[in-house]
Amino acid sequence: MLPPIDRFSGHADLYAQYRIDYPDDLYNFILQAVPQRATAWDCATGNGQVAGALADQFNQVDATDISETQLIMAVQKSNIRYQISPAERTPFADHTFDLITVAQALHWFDVDAFHHEVHRVAKLGAVIAEWGYGLANISPDLDVLMLDFYRNRVGPYWDPQRKYIDTAYATLPFPFADVKRTEFMVQRHWPLDRFLNYLRTWSAVRQYIHENEEDPVVSLGDRLKPLWGDGEREVLFPVFLRMGRV
Predict the structure, then answer these.
(1) Which residues touch 139 (CB under 8 Å, ≥6 apart)?
(2) pLDDT of residue 8 exceeding 60
(3) What is the pTM of this model?
């Protein structure tokens, strides 16, 4: 098994401030399949936003990540227990969880090893939910510039795993029963500066800055500004979800 990949500790503060959260209808869709809500595990929890949402529904939430920096900044609630742990090898006992979630992180894992761990720590009949999101949609003129930035300017700086986001995890194994796949839409109204700071959380942008000592988002912002204007624009994030039962 390859060592876990951490692309976010170096900008955990940006990640906590500028990444999107997820809509209530996504959580409601998952929770309708989970009648027993004693324990949940949020894997690769990052800043703990999913763990925080689950804490309102479950007696106990365990949340893991490989980034200590992320966990230091994570949402704090009395029934969330954070631990540093890789996804593929956890300290949990067999048959512990009613629900296991992974948001925008599965593509960084050894997926087969993670799913083996899910089978070990999940209760019989527990639900596993994995989701993510790719490139946002704004308007045709802005989307053309964003696609060029995504593919060409920072494209060479994405890790190979990024392709799994582009295909909505369709080529990754999912060895579970009662599989459901659906999509949701996250709608935000952002000024340009807010959107540019979101882009600075991309791992490819961070790698570009590291290798070139230059922020590629600055020049992109100069190109976007005449089209964006001074106000807010609607930014749509299509979120894909796959869910199954152990």
Answers:
(1) 227, 233
(2) no
(3) 0.90
